[in-house]
Structures are given as structure tokens and as C-alpha cells.
Automatic annotation (TrEMBL):
Domain of life of the source: Bacteria
Keyword Acyltransferase appears in the UniProt entry: yes
Classification via Gene3D superfamilies: 3.40.630.30
Keywords: Acyltransferase, Transferase
UniProt xrefs under PROSITE patterns: GNAT
TM regions (residue ranges): none
One example GO MF annotation: acyltransferase activity, transferring groups other than amino-acyl groups
Record protein name field: N-acetyltransferase
Source organism: Paenibacillus azoreducens
Source lineage: Bacteria, Bacillati, Bacillota, Bacilli, Bacillales
Amino acid sequence: MANTVLKLITAENTDECLQLKPREDQQRFVAANANSLEKAKKEPTSRPFGIYADDIMVGFALFDVEPYPEDGYFWICRFMIDERYQGKGYGKAGLAAVLQHQKNQTDCTKIRISHVPDNTAANRLYKSFGFAETGEVIGGETVLDLIVAE
Ligand SMILES: CC(C)(COP(=O)(O)OP(=O)(O)OC[C@H]1O[C@@H](n2cnc3c(N)ncnc32)[C@H](O)[C@@H]1OP(=O)(O)O)[C@@H](O)C(=O)NCCC(=O)NCCS
């Protein structure tokens, strides 16, 4: 498998990012990347990243790079792999890179993520990294936490 790395979204790779989309039947699971890039401008603690397989952007993630002010934890706000590149391990490799990036920040004691309740692929992926359901539902989504340090 290609080497998977994160690169910040800048003016140079915005167009490539906007071209990525999930399958049509998955579009209710994640906002369009155009929407996520707009959200990124308003969220002071989160940054948008392309998930790269060597030189090709195969996915996108928007996540906290410092504690989210409202609860002091690190959220992964958006996460997707383009339909052309799914099922090849990039979801797993991309999520591992996101988690490593967050765990490297000071004060990262807990990482939080949420998904549409019937998004079973996302649920399996997140649980395989140690995320556990908290029982909370925020904005209609199932919330999962990964405890980084006690
Ligand atoms: C969820 C998603 C990121 C997975 O990406 P991917 O590149 O296909 O994932 P991988 O190939 O790395 O597979 C990783 C794991 O995801 C889960 N998974 C992926 N596709 C799945 C499917 N069709 N059914 C069940 N589980 C699935 C499995 O746990 C899999 O691990 P396994 O193969 O060891 O069982 C991708 O399907 C996606 O972008 N979906 C649309 C957007 C979305 O739902 N984002 C999450 C919003 S919270």
C-alpha cells in the first residue's frame, strides 16, 4: 500500500480536495468537502487536511489540533475517503495518521468523534482503534470517545 500522510489544505490543493466525494449512498454520512472547508474557517481549533497516498489526495479530515474550547477535548469533525479509493486500507491508515497527530499535541487526553447512527462502516473502523460509544447523541449523531491518558 502507498505511504499515507496528512497535508494541510492550502490554496494549492483546495481544488483537489473539492473533487473528492463519497459514494452517492454515503452522502448522508458526511458533509461535502466544500461545506467542511467553510466550517474550517469558522472553527478556531480545527484544521483541514488532505489524506494522501503518496502524491494523490485520497481523502479528507477536519480535526482539532488543540483542545476544543467547549469541552477541552480533541474532536475529529469530518473524515472521508473518496469513493474511488475506498476498501484499500486508506480509511484505516488515514485515521491512524489523524490520531497520531492529535496524540502528539499537549493536553490530548481524549479524542471524540461522531457518526450517523446507521453508519456501520464508520462504527467498525472507529471501534477497531479503541473508540467506545459514550451513550451520548449530539446533533442526531452517535458519539464515541478514545481515552488517550487518564
Ligand atoms: C468509513 C470510510 C472512511 C472507510 O474508509 P475505507 O478506506 O473504505 O476503509 P478501509 O479500507 O481502511 O477499511 C477500514 C475499516 O473500515 C470498516 N469498513 C470499511 N468498509 C466497510 C463496509 N462496507 N462495511 C463494514 N465495515 C467497513 C472495516 O472495519 C474496515 O476494516 P476491516 O477491513 O479490517 O474490516 C469510508 O467508507 C467513507 O469515507 N465513507 C463515507 C464517509 C463517512 O461515512 N465518513 C465517516 C463520517 S463519521
